[in-house]
TrEMBL record:
Residue ranges the UniProt entry marks as DNA-binding: 53-59
Protein name per UniProt: Single-stranded DNA-binding protein
UniProt keyword terms in alphabetical order: DNA-binding
SUPFAM superfamilies hit by this protein: Nucleic acid-binding proteins
Length: 166
């Protein structure tokens, strides 16, 4: 019997600030929820959007570093594996499925940086004053090179484009 493959790749945004904890052994554990969005046309040809929520766990020194960088709204690319565990609550057995992340890449500007940019005051744009000297005319474009003949073969796309006047 062949081995299976358990691999997950997600691109989405954090739904809340991540939570950093430490296990009894001292290992850092970072938990966060992320949302992925999918757009598609339904049977009635109407654009429908679906959001899925995922629980992601990161372990070790990387968890501590990411805890300082990630905030609600951060766009991240997560690669890892699915892990399902069970627990009992109120006498009922429950299950939870998490993504145990191996690699995480920041996939966009941080929301904090975006907020800072939006808060910056934007003053009037300064336009340069026209100079006293007349502007020099632009240099003419080099002439198009003629298409090469290829011993009776039909011309290539690039050769045909050279012959089209614009």
């Amino acid at each position: 019997m062949s081995d299976g493959m358990n691999r997950v790749v997600l691109l989405g945004n954090l739904g809340a600030d991540p939570e950093l904890r430490y296990a009894g052994s001292g290992t850092a554990v970072l938990n966060f929820r992320m949302a992925t969005n999918e757009s598609f046309l339904d049977r009635n040809r109407e654009l429908t959007e679906r959001t899925e929520w995922h629980s992601v766990v990161v372990f070790g020194p990387r968890a501590e570093g990411l805890a300082r960088v990630l905030v609600k709204g951060s766009c991240v690319l997560v690669e890892g594996t699915l892990r399902t565990s069970s627990y009992e609550k109120d006498g009922q057995k429950r299950y939870k499925t998490e993504v145990h992340a191996r690699d995480i890449c920041l996939a966009g500007p941080s929301p904090a940086a975006l907020r800072r940019d939006a808060d910056d005051e934007v003053g009037p744009m300064e336009m340069p004053l026209p100079s006293e000297e007349p502007a020099s005319p632009p240099e003419p474009a080099p002439p198009a090179r003629p298409a090469r003949k290829r011993n009776g073969a039909p011309p290539r796309k690039a050769e045909m484009l050279d012959e089209i006047p614009f």
